């Protein structure tokens, strides 16, 4: 994300970093409890410092070589590029153009899948993940990750790679929970896990 001189205002009252339940990376019992209690939680220390650095370097390499492509919305006949609704550029982590860090992180995510399946009986069959990069002005309008005609997506997880995020950079994740909207800042080394049917949006980067 690029930095600009003006302040970032989400239009919502100032809050602490995130009023969500929290779990430390690797504590699958705490993660399962937090996810079951509220449907969303922050994961502290995910990715760890070394993984964050390796993933960020890989993402920047891919972006510089033009490997990231504009992300579409919908699927099948309804799949379309709608930059006014979704402005990020992406690449799936299992793509051979990705580096070793992507494969290692996919393995970490799959470990979480297995752990939560065992604790919450979610029946998640597979793990999929992609890099996403938001240029200044880009965001993602309010949506659900689960498709209306397919319940395969059960849990969503967003992990942040920003090493020097500041409030002026924008790009907060806004989750629309039953008790109201909650915003999570995209600070590196933290992740957010939530139900895939939960409505959420990415506020524009600046």
Structure description:
This protein has 206 residues and is α+β, with helices and mostly antiparallel strands. Helices cover 23% and strands 22% of the residues. It has helices at residues 28-38, 49-64, 100-120, and strands at 22-24, 40-44, 69-70, 89-92, 130-133, 140-143, 155-159, 173-177, 180-184, 190-195, 200-202. The chain has a 4-stranded mixed beta sheet with strand order 1-2-10-7. A 4-stranded antiparallel beta sheet has the order 6-11-8-9, with no helix packed on it. Helix 1 links the parallel strand 1 (22-24) and strand 2 (40-44). The longest helix is centred in the middle third of the chain and has 21 residues, at 100-120. The radius of gyration is 16 Å and the shape is globular. Residues 1-18 have low confidence and may be disordered.
Keywords:
206 residues, 4-stranded mixed sheet, disordered N terminus
Number of strands: 11
What is the first-to-last residue Cα distance?
Answer: 7 Å
Average residue pLDDT = 90
Strand order of the largest sheet: 1-2-10-7
The whole-angstrom Rg is 16 Å
Number of helices: 3
Q: Main beta sheet, described?
A: 4 strands, mixed
Amount of helix: 10-25%
Low-confidence stretches: 1-18
By secondary-structure content and strand pairing, the structural class works out as alpha+beta
Specify the overall morphology.
globular
Question: Which sequence of SSEs, written as H and E, runs from N to C?
Answer: EHEHEEHEEEEEEE
Strand content: 15-25%
């Amino acid at each position: 994300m690029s930095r600009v001189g003006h302040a970032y205002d989400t239009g919502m009252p100032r809050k602490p970093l995130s009023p969500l339940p929290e779990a430390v990376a690797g504590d699958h019992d705490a993660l399962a409890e937090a996810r079951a209690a509220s449907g969303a939680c922050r994961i502290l220390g995910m990715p760890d410092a070394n993984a964050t650095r390796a993933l960020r370097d890989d993402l920047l390499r891919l972006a510089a070589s033009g490997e990231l492509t504009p992300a579409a919305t919908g699927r099948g006949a309804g799949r379309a590029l709608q930059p006014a609704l979704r402005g990020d550029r992406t690449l799936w982590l299992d793509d051979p153009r990705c580096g070793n860090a992507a494969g290692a992180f996919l393995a970490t995510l799959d470990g979480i899948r297995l752990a939560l399946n065992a604790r919450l009986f979610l029946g998640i069959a597979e793990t999929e993940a992609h890099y996403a990069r938001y240029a200044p002005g880009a965001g993602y309008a309010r949506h659900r990750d689960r498709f209306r005609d397919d319940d395969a997506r059960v849990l969503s997880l967003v992990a942040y790679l920003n090493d020097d995020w500041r409030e002026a950079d924008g790009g907060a994740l806004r989750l629309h929970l039953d008790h109201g909207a909650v915003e999570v800042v995209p600070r590196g080394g933290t992740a957010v896990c939530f139900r895939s049917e939960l409505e959420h949006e990415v506020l524009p980067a600046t």
